[in-house]
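Q: I have 212 residues here and want to know how they pack in 3D. Can you give me a structure?
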Amino acid sequence: MRPIGEIVCFLVVLTSCYSQWLVFAPLEDTSELEEPDPWVALMKPELPNTLVLTDPLDYDQPELEEPVQDPTTSSTLENLAEKVDNLMSQLKSQEDKIAKLEEANKKLIDKVDIIEQQVKTNNLIFYNVTESKRENHRSTLQKVLFILNRVMKVRTSPSDITVALRADVVDDNNTFYKHRVIVVKFANFATRMKVLGARSRLSHSNIWVSPD
């Protein structure tokens, strides 16, 4: 028989070798031992182990792209705006000139009206005085003096009358008188008023007198 010491050494070596074999031995594949359940495979679809994002998540609002302006268009618009401003300035200047001219014209018209009133202050118009074919300024004056002295009984002389002439006058009905009227300008306002006050003496004739 072998001695006990050798047997003990053999057992120790054998135990050490078995321990190392357990550490380094590969694990057995248990998948071959158990058959997969087909119902479980149908109920549990395979899902990817990793979720891959193609684009990074952006939680900010998207920025709007600014329109690209054509420098040629911008320059054209600026030129048009400048031209419009120039035209508006010229129009305003013309309007101011027109307003001044209208004001000056109104003043001139007022002055003309005043002058006409002053000119007509001593005037009287004689209507329906018979006109002859060869009548002239002297014969017209003689007819007026005859009417004043003989018909109206107002003593007057040629020196009391500045001018007596025929003129075409249209009445409110736009009809011409058969005989042209005689416009008489007296030398003074007093004589004119004296004749105007005596016009009622012409009621029995076809002649009448009125202010100019």
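Q: Anything worth noting?
A: DSSP finds five helices and four strands in the chain. Helices lie at 4-24, 38-43, 71-120, 137-151, 189-197.
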